[in-house]
């Protein structure tokens, strides 16, 4: 099935020629587009994996090489990331190629349309389902501001980020509070679940005793930043979904600041799944340190997966939890 706005724009068939699609999720209805003439770019691991399983050709980054005849951009929530995707799509389109932009009103599609209308003619547009899709035929030359291109940003001393990564403008206060509660010595084999651009990982590596640190992160761009930010031989980088991540051998420490949004929707189930993974990765004597927004209901999941759970700090906004006695599936514990 085609999504309702795509049906309005492409009900008579997809654009001619080679099509570049940026930002589609695993749930986007793309039926009707031709997998042989479409190349998708998606750096979020669960969406990338779902799209590939549906038979699409999917890359993590826009390709270099021959220019495309058309591009379709699904707007993300972050404005800087939206600008970067549109810039990337335009840079890979031949002059005159159709640039389609689809987005929700809540993600700023109307203000983007207004902005772009000042730079190029809008050839077609449709509104439906609280959003809009519109087409611009790519003008010749540089028609977009150069600073729309994705460029590394100095988020903290020695740390770069890219548009759209979590907390791209600076250290997350929850992660800072968690780091302040980590002991001076940590276990030797550690995991950082949802490691982002690596700030918390750097705090882990600065503690005594750490021999290995596995960074697990779904956002390809964030993990690339972490690779650049951690100048250390001990980290191992895993582009993966923390919910089903496994390691061949158990570890003795997990640190995490789990996400609680899946795309646009608040989803405490994500944090609950991270807790289950932490328990699965740990030895029975291993330890979990995590930070969570105080209102998030993680207590039942923690009690289900760990024998001992303590709140070791926090403030009005966050709670810092330490847990041990992981009940690993298959080791006599409950799942
Ligand atoms: C609250 S942020 C914490 C980031 C980092 N640890 C820090 O302190 O800045 C949560 C991170 O989890 C990542 N994430 C979201 N869903 C994920 C999943 N299913 N698997 C792995 N990582 C995920 C997000 O991209 C984000 O970087």
């Amino acid at each position: 099935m085609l999504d309702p706005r795509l049906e309005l724009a492409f009900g008579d068939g997809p654009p001619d020629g080679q099509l570049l699609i940026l930002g589609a999720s695993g749930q986007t209805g793309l039926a009707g587009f031709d997998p042989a003439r479409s190349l998708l770019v998606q750096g979020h691991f669960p969406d990338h994996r779902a799209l590939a399983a549906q038979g699409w050709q999917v890359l993590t980054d826009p390709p270099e090489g021959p220019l495309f005849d058309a591009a379709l951009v699904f707007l993300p929530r972050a404005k800087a990331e939206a600008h970067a995707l549109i810039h990337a799509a335009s840079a890979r389109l031949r002059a005159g190629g159709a640039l389609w932009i689809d987005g929700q009103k809540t993600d700023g599609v109307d203000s983007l349309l207004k902005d772009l209308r000042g730079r190029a003619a809008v050839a077609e547009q449709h509104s439906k389902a609280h959003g809009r899709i519109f087409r611009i035929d790519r003008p010749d030359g540089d028609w977009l501001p150069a600073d729309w291109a994705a460029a590394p940003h100095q988020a903290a001393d020695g740390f770069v980020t890219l548009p759209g990564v979590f907390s791209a403008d600076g250290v997350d206060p929850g992660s800072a509070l968690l780091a302040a509660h980590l002991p001076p010595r940590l276990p030797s084999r550690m995991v950082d679940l949802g490691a982002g651009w690596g700030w918390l990982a750097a705090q882990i590596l600065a503690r005594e005793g750490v021999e290995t640190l596995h960074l697990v992160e779904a956002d390809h761009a964030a993990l690339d930043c972490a690779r650049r930010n951690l100048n250390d031989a001990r980290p191992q980088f895993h582009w993966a979904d923390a919910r089903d991540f496994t390691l061949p051998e158990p570890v003795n420490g997990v640190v995490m600041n789990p996400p609680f949004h899946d795309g646009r929707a608040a989803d405490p189930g994500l944090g609950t799944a991270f807790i289950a993974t932490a328990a699965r990765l740990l030895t029975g004597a291993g330890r979990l340190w995590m930070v969570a927004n105080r209102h998030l209901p993680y207590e039942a999941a923690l009690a289900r997966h760990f024998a001992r759970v303590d709140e070791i700090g926090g403030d009005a906004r966050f709670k810092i939890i330490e847990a041990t006695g992981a009940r690993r599936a298959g080791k006599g514990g409950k799942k």
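The pocket of S-adenosylmethionine is lined by residues 46, 166-167, 172, 175, 194-196, 199-200, 216-219, 222, 241-243, 257, 259 (CB under 6 Å). Residues 22 and 73 are 5 Å apart (CA to CA).
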